[in-house]
Write a structure and sequence with these properties.
The protein has 129 residues and is mainly alpha-helical. The protein has a single domain, classed as ACP-like (Non-ribosomal Peptide Synthetase Peptidyl Carrier Protein, Chain A, Orthogonal Bundle). The chain has 6 helices and 2 strands; from the N terminus they run αααββααα.
């Protein structure tokens, strides 16, 4: 499936759920910080994506996808992402501003930095599984 089709569908879903104009949503926008989406918006957006592509999608899928490529290394300790975990994020999610990926970042905080493109990439991975 073409990545741009997935990206465009996600942008349209965000617009429909949040009321934002499609033109104001770009691939590099963070879902929570830039677009100010709420958890309710995300539930609705995930539902639209799941129905469109017949996949199951959870916020924890970002973390799980990162963990599977770590060859047994610790991704986090006591909810704080390790240096190797931060390196994995930088490699796998280069669209996340590296200024946000600092020591002390928790797993719970990571979701704030997920971009529209990162969501589209995850959906594409899920579709191809």
């Amino acid at each position: 499936m073409k990545d741009n089709l997935v990206l465009n569908f996600i942008i349209e879903s965000i617009s429909e759920s949040s009321g934002l104009e499609v033109e104001s949503i770009n691939p590099g926008s963070t879902l929570f910080q830039d677009l100010c989406l709420t958890s309710i918006d995300m539930v609705e957006i995930f539902y639209m994506i799941e129905m469109e592509y017949d996949i199951s999608l959870r916020a924890s899928d970002f973390e799980n996808d990162l963990r599977k490529d770590m060859d047994g290394e610790e991704f986090e300790i006591d909810n704080v992402i390790t240096d190797k975990g931060l390196a994995a994020i930088r490699q796998k999610l280069p669209e996340i501003n590296s200024d946000n990926l600092k020591q002390g970042l928790t797993v719970d905080q990571l979701i704030k930095f997920i971009t529209v493109r990162a969501l589209a990439n995850l959906v594409t991975i899920k579709i191809n599984q």
